[in-house]
Amino acid sequence: MYRIAVIGGDGTGPEVVREGLKVLDAASSKFGFKYETKEFDFSGKRYLATGKLVDDNDIVELKKYEAIYLGAVGDPEVKPGVIETGVLLKLRFALDQYINLRPVKLYNSDFCPLKDKKPEDIDFVVVRENSEGLYKGMGEFKDKGTKDEVAIQISYNTRRGVERCIRYAFEYTRKRNRRKKLTLCGKTNVLTFAWDLWQRTFNEVAKEYPDISTDYAHVDATTMWFVKNPEWFDVIVTDNMFGDIITDLGAMIQGGMGIAAGGNINPKGVSMFEPIGGSAPKYTGKNVINPLAAICAVGMLLENLGEEKAAKAVEDAVIKVVSKNLKSLAAGKMGYSTQEVGDLVVKNL
Ligand code: IPM
Ligand code: MN
Fold this sequence. Notes:
The chain is α/β, with parallel strands linked by helices and 349 residues long. Helices cover 41% and strands 19% of the residues. A hairpin with a 7-residue loop joins strand 6 and strand 7. The mean pLDDT is 98.
């Protein structure tokens, strides 16, 4: 019996999660695994009503679950940064979900903004470090509010943190068993402390994986290759900030936020799966948002639980819907409502 914590969250989060749970339910009947869910209300709405974010007791409670399924958090009425740090980053950090795994896979070339790129050209995975770097929240103001003000934001990288991420990426590349190529994406030419550590660690760990070929690309060049030659990539490993940026670009070349999912992974703890597109407040309650990203997140969640057949079946069902039914992956343009898209996936499953 898998216990799954569900956080619908804000905006369109609850709507897409509902479709994801519909698919989870269908997958459980078909593949014979059992699960139960419990809803947790962590959201901007709850913060506005009660002032509450995620606290340490919540973390103790969440540690009793096998996985967390998250819709989206963020409310336009709350000052930027509060929900992000108090809910999303709090969960990632407190549960030590030190990997952010983001597959970039094109399912239908009609939905690719790049000319002449086919599904086999866009199929890679970004392994983003998810607990350190610029996200650590370290820094200070000096002479705040004066004309001499200085704002310092520190990128904090530990050997331990960098190494566990790089090891995960090598293991993942081996297990994925596709082109067996791992690219380190960094900025060794300018950020000479952080990326020296990353590069040294990468080179050392690489010696233990002679079956994996390695490569390096600066982050700016990486964005160029994503557009020009995405077929060069198999698995990419990078830090928290660069990973955040390049995975939004990755989402666009795979067809947009409507299809992009990610996992916040603690390989020995509780992992959390989410569509990466945010709460999309303007589409809330209209039944027009694309639930496929949230459904793909269910696929990733199942894979993480070891239900690999079910995970594969969910992905195959999504591929069918994306290639046979939908007119577009964008909200309001799919040719179907949010609920109908969920139903189509269930039918194909
Ligand atoms: C993401 C998001 C978050 C991040 C924000 C909402 C804090 O952009 O998951 O990529 O920057 O990691
Ligand atoms: Mn982001």
